[in-house]
Amino acid sequence: xxxxxxxxxxxxxxxxxxxxxxxxxxxxxxxxxxxxxxxxxxxxxxxxxxxxxxxxxxxxxxxxxxxxxxxxxxxxxxxxxxxxxxxxxxxxxxxxxxxxxxxxxxxxxxxxxxxxxxxxxxxxxxxxxxxxxxxxxxxxxxxxxxxxxxxxxxxxxxxxxxxxxxxxxxxxxxxxxxxxxxxxxxxxxxxxxxxxxxxxxxxxxxxxxxxxxxxxxxxxxxxxxxxxxxxxxxxxxxxxxxxxxxxxxxxxxxxxxxxxxxxxxxxxxxxxxxxxxxxxxxxxxxxxxxxxxxxxxxxxxxxxxxxxxxxxxxxxxxxxxxxxxxxxxxxxxxxxxxxxxxxxxxxxxxxxxxxxxxxxxxxxxxxxxxxxxxxxxxxxxxxxxxxxx
Length: 389
What we know:
Blueprint: H1 3-9, H2 11-27, H3 41-49, H4 68-80, E1 84-88, H5 91-106, E2 110-114, H6 118-122, H7 126-129, E3 134-139, H8 147-151, E4 159-163, H9 176-188, E5 192-197, H10 204-207, H11 211-215, E6 220-224, E7 235-239, H12 241-253, H13 262-274, H14 279-300, E8 306-308, E9 316-321, H15 325-339, E10 349-352, E11 355-361, H16 371-383
Parallel strand pairs: 2-3, 2-4, 4-5, 5-6
Antiparallel strand pairs: 1-7, 6-7, 8-9, 9-11, 10-11
Helix pairs in contact: 1-2, 2-15, 4-13, 5-12, 14-16, 15-16
């Protein structure tokens, strides 16, 4: 959430605080997550050098989607239980193509989605400007749409898009029963269902179902390779063979038929092999971290603090505090610089008058933190906040 927001508000301050935060993160002895994009080129290339156990490195490199790219597509389709999958350079492209294809098949270009969904918040109106689609907002509440909202929506729509989890609402998910009811409500309206599954990989814990069962509810699914799997980038669209083949034609038209993509595809295979099995462990520990944060803030006497969701649905969640974003950003960076422990490694965004929000991401590095470690880091952070009148 983001770097671009803090820089847009004040370019000099945004760049300065961001550089300090990244430097503190790289030098810290304790963080919740060490993301690939914080590492050097040499460190990232080492991932490919060590990938011989997931793919034959003596194979010829890919050309326009064959070789290792095809191997990745086959792997994803098997994991999600779909007939086929297509690799895309970005999720933005994958979803535009998917919903454009469905619009042609249903004869209805209207896409029902959440007001906080990625296309509505982060894609510059791409659905309408590029794809000729017409997005309509089913709800703006900080949760997934309900079956009643879908069933009673006043306009017809050809596709319902559900973001699982809904990132900008706090990485929230419905229950399995709620999800099946929402999908059923869309089916009653003869609409297709597309899952924005950028973070679908880690949703199995909260939903209590396998990837194949979750993906099986939808007509098509998009998944990301870099958000939780630590790949260099890339995405896949999975679904029926006929849809995927049409999507590949549109991928070419959109400029996504890249000559060679072996670094990204190979890094995605590494992520599926090494990170995917660990995601449930990260989700479980995120709940330990969230509970310790709540206890730490209470012990520090903060007048109001929120961890959202109170019990995280995935290994990512939000923290809300009653201070201006720049105050919290400075305190977080100072604490990291002076203690070597990064409690809040992401930017703080304004959430309202005197209120700000940040995201906490728990990955392998976060497993090293005990609850007491978290509470101690909270005390150090709060000690660097100004006293409230």
